[in-house]
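tool=predict chain=A
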Amino acid sequence: MKKGYKKYFSLIVILLLLTSLITGCGDTNTADSSDQGKEEIVKLKHWLWLDDPNDPTFSQLVEEFNNTHPNIQVEVEVIGWNDFHTKLLNSVTGGSGPDTSSFKLTWQPEFIGQDALMPLNDFLKEWPGKDDVAENLWDVMEYEDGNNYVMPWELQVLYMYYRPSMFEEVGAEIPDTWDEFLEIAKKLTKDTDGDGKVDQYAFAMRGARGGHEPWASFILSNVPENTFFDDEGNCTLTYPEAIEANELFLDLYKKYKVVPPTAVADGFNEIITNFKSGKAAMVIHHIKSSNGMIEQFGDDVDAFPVPAGPHGRWTSMGDTENVIYKSTKHPQEAFIFVSWLSEKEQIERWCKATGNVPVLKSLQDQDYFKENRFMVASFESMPYAHVFPINENMGEWIESLWPATTQQALEGKISSKKMMEILAEGMTK
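tool=predict ok
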């Protein structure tokens, strides 16, 4: 009995082990089959700055993207503007950067020099939205090597704000040329309270940091082809036409005195304050100032494109784009995200929330944008809107050289010719 029992017990154990092995193998195969049927979830990191950190619009857009693209999940990090460029450059060179980020055209030389940006030409060939982008933007955004590294996103175009009531008081019409601008500027500069002192000036000049953009509208409208460099690579700032146009700019302060006496040191806050206080009848800026202007003046504020010179018009374009970094392991998914941001529905929501100018032609035709007088001024200015040269010299040129040299010229310490020679050399050294 005992021997038979042992044989019987052993047989049962063996059968149980075999059953367990067979069942285990079956479970393993089922799990493998299930895993193989699932697509990998790609995670992307996107960095950006926000003019208004409390604005939830971008977070809402990303949430919608993640919900409609379950196999691509984007994580967003918002970084303050003052720290953004430095942190981004350090992270990219250190190998810890994001997959995609907000970007400025003028940053291209240093990032491309680090071989950090991914060319988008091949992706753009297949992107259906390419032809809806405003006509000249692809040319403006193309880098000198023939590649496009950026996807259009935000846009502002400089134009002239003015006070219609002030124009009506002196019988002034909107100037079409810089010569006409000077003539009405003389009329608009006056003593309004009879105390023998001028208290209303025509134009809020920006002589300090950031004034290079409105200044260029005076200069490049007088230069053939409206460019900083001619076909032979010579800087046009030393052309006789450019020096003469610069003389007019300087004389608004030195000779004609149609700008506030503080113009030499006036920056952004000062020129906007001068305009809002009634001290100036005109000022150059873009649409991001329009809400404040309307709050201040209601209907008594309007806009027109910067005046023309003998060779047409030139105005400065403010930009923010999106880019993909070569370090990403998921370039296709990264392009799906940044191109989705540039599609019509997303651009429309972003521009309505933030007041930016839509970069798409189909949106510019919408009544919502066409009925906004400041959007109209922006649209009218876009065909001749450009950015400053994109090279390694321009950071110092913009931040230091232009304001320091211009202030010397306004104060009469150097001539217009000398000013332009210094600025030309700074662009090309």
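Residues 42-156+318-386 form a domain with the D-Maltodextrin-Binding Protein; domain 2 fold (CATH 3.40.190.10). The chain has two domains: 42-156+318-386, 159-317+388-428.
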